[in-house]
Amino acid sequence: MKLLFERSVAGRHLDLIPKSDTENYQLPEKYVRKKEAHLPQMSEVDLGRHYTELAKQTHGVNDGFYPLGSCTMKYNPRIDEEMASLEGFTQLHPLQPEKTVQGSLKLLKKTEELLCEITGMDAMTFEAAAGAHGEYTGLLLIRRYHQSRNDTERVNIIVPDSAHGTNPASATMAGFHVINVPSNENGGVDLDALRKAVGKDTAGLMLTNPNTLGLFDPNILEITKIVHEAGGLCYYDGANLNAVMGRVRPGDMGFDCIHLNLHKTFATPHGGGGPGSGPVGCKDFLKEFLPHHMVKQTETGYTMYDPKQSLGQVRSFYGNFLVVVKALTYILTLGKEGIREASGKAVLNANYMMHRLKECYTVAYDSICMHEFVLSLDDLKKETGVSAMDIAKASLDYGIHPPTMYFPLIVHEALMFEPAETESRETIDAAADIYLELYRKAHEDPEYLHSAPHNCPIGRPDETAAARNPKLKYEFHDQ
Ligand SMILES: Cc1ncc(COP(=O)(O)O)c(C=O)c1O
After folding, report:
1. Among positive and negative, which fits the CA dihedral 117, 120, 122, 124?
2. What values do phi and psi take at 68, rounded to 5?
3. Residue-wise pLDDT tens digits, 158-177
4. What burial class does residue 193 get, using C-beta atoms within 10 Å of its C-beta: 0-12 exposed, 13-18 middle, 19+ buried?
5. Dist. CA 183–CA 204, nearest whole Å
6. Given this model, what pLDDT does residue 202 score?
7. Which helix (H) or strand (E) holds 447?
8. What is the CB < 6 Å shell around ligand 1?
């Protein structure tokens, strides 16, 4: 497909930007560009076709099934986008006087209250821009807490081996040492290993529950107790909250602080790198360490304040405000019952799909799952040479986005499926039929699967090169 600059023809144009009705302003000479800017020159219809062609080459939730495990690629109701597009929200300036943005401050406070009710926390900041950023912020809270008690020996964060990769990465970035604890044979935290791992040097534990195997740890109260008794704090990675919202609360499981991924659980589409939001919630005793720009209601209205021992600012201004607008709309439109129903359906759908695939495939930890489940294609690979990657790539030819591959790391040839609550039984049945068909194909014609996909614009790119040396800008010949 041609790029915009390759489609460009000198002299073509379109008038997208309205004529300015303000006086011309002469920029100081030092800011004036010396050369013409490289801008593609094209007509409106050609520009429209370019983006339509691009859109056709990608896969989103509106195109078809998207069971990308750990990512909660659920359908996000249109009304959430509509609310976030209201001019009263989109035209705000972050430096506007508080008295002119009372509605938006109220919205932040209301969302904080509702998310605290859902998670069992006492306060929440919206500054962090995504899940990993929330983890980092939460870990800084834990650090501040220990520092405030002069408990400076606490330098270790315990992370189970099933954790999402961002957990150890955030802990390291926040200045901690990471101590790994293994999983037990049921996929939960090995309690004996945890007891051995904790001590005077334990700053805290980071845990996802349900974990990345899609399993709810039945020992969760014991786990948080072990860490607390050792003087550590418990951090809940809330990226998997979609499985339990409206049913159990991290605060009641014994967690002291958490982050949420609004861009998974609370209705912001993601996957293309768009804005996310990773609000960080905490119990009362950590409130004073939260980042700047907390909102409170006073007699004269809503106002922002910086907590007394705040860890400072973790992002410019107040986070991704429009994502918060979507989250509030989502919560209010679903209501208490709807939130509970959504998590119930997410779990039902995952169990149904797992049950269908078990006809051929091996489930890594064969028990009732939560919102996602993990297959191990180790046996299939040994029998046929067909790998998890081959099956995932082949599903693209059937209009299905591949499941998450080779994660979690503790499962060989892993494929992780998260069908999400918004999928119908018909969609899940159709997808299950395709995966069962691919299993049979693996035995009959493995070569076909090794070279899949056969009908996509891109087949098997060099993923390492794409990650390490991304080509993100057009190379002009005159540069
Ligand atoms: C369990 C878990 N924790 C943390 C994250 C990180 O979230 P983000 O991608 O928003 O940084 C993810 C993302 O997939 C996740 O699945």
Report:
1. negative
2. -70, 100
3. 999 999 999 999 999 999 99
4. middle
5. 18
6. 98
7. helix 446-450
8. 70-71, 130-132, 164, 166, 208, 212, 237, 239-240, 261, 276, 278
Write the single-letter amino acid at 384.
Answer: T
Q: Which residues contact residue 425 at a Cβ distance below 8 angstroms, ignoring those fewer than 6 apart? A: 352
- Per-residue pLDDT tens for 275-315? 899 999 999 999 999 999 999 999 999 999 999 999 999 99
- The per-residue pLDDT of the chain, averaged, comes to 95
**Domains by residue range for the chain, with CATH:** 79-333 (3.40.640.10), 336-461 (3.90.1150.10)
pLDDT tens digits, 23-37: 888 999 999 999 888
Q: Is 466 helix (H, G, I), strand (E, B) or coil?
A: helix
How close is the Cα of 306 to the center of ligand 1, in Å?
A: 27
- On whether the CB atoms of residues 296 and 109 are closer than 8 A, the answer is yes
Tokens matching residue 77: 């109701």
pLDDT confidence bin for 479, thresholds 50/70/90 = low
What average pLDDT does this structure show over 373-398?
A: 98
Q: Which residue, judged by its Cα, is nearest atom 7 of ligand 1? A: 131
| Ligand 1 centroid, distance to 166 Cα (angstroms) | 7
Indicate if the pLDDT at residue 478 is higher than 80.
Answer: no
Length of the chain: 479
Q: Whose CA is nearest to atom 12 of ligand 1?
A: 239
H or E segment and range at residue 179: strand 177-181
User: What number does the ligand 1 atom closest to the CA of 133 have?
Assistant: 11
| Beta carbons within 8 Å of 299's beta carbon, 6+ residues apart | none
Q: Which amino acid is at 389?
A: M
pLDDT digits (tens, 9 = 90+) for 449-463: 999 999 998 899 998
**Residue whose CB lies within 8 A of the most ligand 1 atoms, among 68, 161, 166, for a mutation test:** 166
* Cβ neighbours for 378, distance < 8 A, ≥ 6 positions apart: 362, 412, 413
Contact criterion met (CB below 8 Å) for 253 and 220: yes
Tokens encoding 430? 């159709």
- Contact indicator for 309, 144 with CB cutoff of 8 Å: yes
Report the 10 Å Cβ neighbour count for 275: 15
Is a pLDDT exceeding 80 seen at residue 427? yes
Ligand 1 probe mutation, 66, 70, 270, most atoms within 8 A of CB: 70
Q: Tell me the whole-structure pTM to 2 decimals.
A: 0.93
**pLDDT, tens only, 179-215:** 999 999 999 999 999 999 999 999 999 999 999 999 9
